[in-house]
Amino acid sequence: MKYANGIAFLLEETDYITVAPSAPWNETSCNRWALPETEKYLAAVVTESMSRFAIDPDRVVLGGTSMGGMGGMALIVRIPDRFAAVYAGSVSWEKAYWKAATGTPLFLIHGANDAIAPGHPKWSLRPKFTDVFFAREADRLLTKYGVEHIYAEHDGGHPSGQAKPQIKRFLGWMQKRTRDPCAAHVFAVSHGDAIVYQPHNRWVSVEQLDEGKLEYDGCVLKDMRGGWKQTLEQFNKAHVVARKSKHSAGYVEARNLGGNRFSLETRNVKTLSLWFHPRMADLNKPIQLTIDGKAQSIEVKPSLTDALRSFERRHDWGLIYHACAVVEIPAE
Predict the structure, then answer these.
(1) Minimal CA–CA distance to 273: which of 329, 318, 317, 331?
(2) How many helices (H) and strands (E) are present in the chain, helices listed first?
(3) How many domains does the chain have?
(4) Are residues 168 and 24 in the same domain?
């Protein structure tokens, strides 16, 4: 925690169990949270912590600043069901399908003066690696897609020590966050061309993709020259732009309507699994599904096998479901 630059003493004033794992090592890139081992690494950290302390699996919050914030932005769309909430400060991001974060609130903090031009009378040069454009664009898109989040911008720069009021606000907000494994609205995205295949979100799993692509949002830093030795001309020329890109992927947007009724909308999906808990439906009665406008009725039966299979997806004791139904999506 000694490198937390202002966060450590704020956390020490709380009753939270704080664990600060370092990013996995990557000799060729700064994208250290994008390594294939990241999810397993963080899951192992949580498992180890839970073996030492009495931790509620539904009250695990992921947070980070700068590179750690980049990890938060990446992981909230890759394993959104693992956390009660995510905090990301002073970030950049390259590509995201933001609807995948549905159900996992994000608290985003960024300084309006994150990038500092050379010759500043008070602060040293900081290139536009984490320019405020990244956070503002994420805020705009999350608002557009209806994903729960808070964006707290401040007048300072990159260090988290300049965002203490915003971090205190986050810590208060965090106390009220609890993961709901049986959330009524779930959005599962399977990133078909991802390094790590993580097609799950709570009670929905994408099992098999069909052909097709989804449009992702992104940001790219252009005309970046000079690095940490930029001239003023180079600094002014560098800029961040929003972009769209298409990638092989599919999604399932699922809603529990109550009364054993579920509505699903799919895109580029051949097969999916639905995992049921007694909190979600009466498992002794038929389940009524409406999938892409077509109605069908299914029956499920709780079993130890299904419960173990549900655990196997995430190795998370908070994501245990009693019954499973595998659903084939008919070709159009």
Answers:
(1) 329
(2) 7, 15
(3) 2
(4) yes
In a domain, 225, yes or no: no
Say whether both 304 and 209 belong to one domain.
yes
Phi and psi torsions of 132, nearest 5°: -60, -20
Burial 191-215 (b: 16+ CB within 10 A, else e): bbebeeebbbbbbbbbbebeeeebe
Distance CA 122, CA 259 (A): 62
Q: Determine the structural domain holding residue 269 and report its residue range.
A: 185-213+249-328
Quick check: is 234 in a domain? no
Together in a domain, 86 and 169: yes
- CATH label of the domain that carries residue 42: 3.40.50.1820
Q: What is the pLDDT along the chain (332 residues), one digit of tens a residue?
A: 444 556 777 777 888 888 888 877 777 766 677 666 787 888 889 889 999 999 999 999 999 989 889 989 989 998 999 999 999 999 999 999 999 999 999 999 999 999 999 988 888 899 999 999 999 999 999 999 999 999 999 999 998 888 999 999 999 999 999 999 999 999 999 876 555 557 899 999 999 999 999 999 999 999 999 999 999 999 999 999 999 999 999 999 999 999 999 999 999 999 999 999 999 999 999 999 999 999 999 999 999 999 999 999 988 999 999 999 999 998 76
29, 130: one domain: yes
Shared-domain flag, residues 27 and 106? yes
Separation of alpha carbons 67 and 28, rounded Å: 15
Distance CA 179, CA 76 (A): 13
